[in-house]
Amino acid sequence: MSQPQLQRILLVDDEADLGRIGEVALAKIGGFDVRVASSGTEALEAADFRPDLILLDVMMPGMNGLETLEAMGATSGLRGVPVVFLTARAQQHEIEEYLRAGALDVITKPFDPTSLADEVRDLWKSRASK
Amino acid sequence: VLASGAVGELPEDANEMVEIALRNTDRLTHMINEVLDIQKMEAGNVDLNLEWLSPEQLIEELVEENTAFADQRDVTLEIDCRTEETLICVDPHKFHRVLTNLLSNAVKFSPEGEHVDVVAEMADAETVRLAIRDRGPGIPEDFQDELFEPFTQADPARNRQQPGTGLGLHIARELTERMGGEIGFETSDEEGTKMFVNLPVGESSHHTCPEPPDRREQP
Fold first, then answer.
1. Cα B6–B9–B11 angle (5° rounding)?
2. 3-state SS of B140-209?
3. Cα Rg of chain B (Å, integer)
4. pLDDT digits (tens, 9 = 90+) for B73-129
5. Does A38 touch chain B (CB under 8 A)?
């Protein structure tokens, strides 16, 4: 069976500059359809976007990334969508915590905008092959 | 040069990326300078150029310089000066930096539409107190002991909305103490936070002031 194609990415980050850079990197370089949410709450409201993949910041005011991930599990349109944490908090014990919580993987900040799209595409492929 | 358009107009997205790069370069430069300042202070390389100054003039200049920043956040700055003719002996540049740090924190953590009081008063007969009071959420109790420690911020997630290095208050305390003063705060969720600097009216034991001007009695 062929793998579903990665098209729509929901990027969740409260830092406006990073959200914008990520959006440009994924849309202009990667050719993805990207929506940016600046908080966990906003991310839950973006269920209508029907993302194929979610890139999720961890340290955010209000709902943090882990809380957002949990809430996504109860949100139609987001439930079951693979989540990759995008975070500077990526010590080994933290990565293990994210994976235990159900994340597909972790991309550490600072990320290279020119390779972000490739990195995301590789994660998508590796997921499909698992 | 790129952002200014001097070498030709950039496409909108490219211009935005340049502006993001500039903004974050400024933040990084600011952070590096603060780290270097701390290194200098720890090595004892802080020269003080002391002058006798009027607290009233100090806070008026402070408010004038920060009004645009406060306006952006819809915060009003209000001056209340009750020190009359009293003068304090400080390094103008370094003391201004201390007060700017306290005031910018107060503005950043103020709810929109609120006001920040900038007060100069006599804490007692021998001490001038410069205080800056906001109506923000107060400093969390479990963070109060660490407030002046370097690289600390109360809530990293929240502070990303209020960018900072976690060094400003540490530098403010170090500079204040080198000028013979002390820095402190009062805070509660209901009342907001009052940060203050106490400075002796007379010549402090920490440094030698120049001769005071005629308008002031000899200390």
1. 145
2. CHHHHHHCCCCCCCCCHHHHCCCCCCCCHHHHHHHHHHHCCCEEEEEEECCCEEEEEEEEECCCCCCCCC
3. 19
4. 999 999 999 988 889 999 999 999 999 999 999 999 999 999 999 999 999 988 999
5. no
pLDDT (tens digit per residue) in A67-121: 999 999 999 999 999 999 999 999 999 999 999 999 999 999 999 999 999 999 9
Q: Which residues of B touch A27 (CB under 8 A)?
A: none
Cβ separation B155–A61 shorter than 8 A: yes
Subunit contact A59:B157, Cβ cutoff 8 A: yes
Tell me what ipTM this predicted complex has: 0.74
- How far apart (Å, rounded) are the C-alpha atoms in residues B176 and A5? 60
CB nearest to A64's CB, from B23, B24, B157: B157
Q: Which of A14, A17, A61 sits opposite B23 (nearest CB)?
A: A17
> Which tokens belong to A54?
């979610």
In chain B, what residues touch A86 (CB-CB under 8 Å)? none
Strands, sheet with A33-37, edge to edge from the N-terminal-most edge strand: A33-37, A8-12, A53-56, A83-87, A105-108
Q: What tokens appear for B123 in the block?
A: 């804490």
The sign of the dihedral angle between the CA atoms of A74, A78, A82, A84 is negative
- pTM higher than the cut 0.90: no
* CB-based contact, A88 to chain B, within 8 Å: no
From the list B13, B23, B158, the residue facing A61 with the nearest CB is: B158
